[in-house]
Amino acid sequence: MITKTLKSVAFLGIFLFMVSCGETTDTVESGTYQGTIEEVEASKDEIYVKTDDNKTLELYFKENTELTRNGSTVEFSELKEGQKVEVEVEKVGKRLDPISVKIME
Hints:
105 residues; alpha+beta; CATH 2.40.50.320; seven-stranded mixed β-sheet; 7 strands; DUF5666 domain-containing protein; signal
């Protein structure tokens, strides 16, 4: 009985930890979206974008992701929280692959 209770408490603790640490993200159809960068995780080449229709997109950059500002290619380090961006994504299962990211400002 105690073992079963401890397992339940441990599971609940892990679940709550994952929910509190994880950011809820949305999956959208392939296409182009505009929004604002909410978070940049440089160590993972990842950004979170809040779209104009209030969805949060989690985007992991790939080798072929095109990142531009004013028509010129720029480095990932140019991305900052609060920037307006236009992203073109491809839906692959539940994952969104960024094809291109344009810094709008």
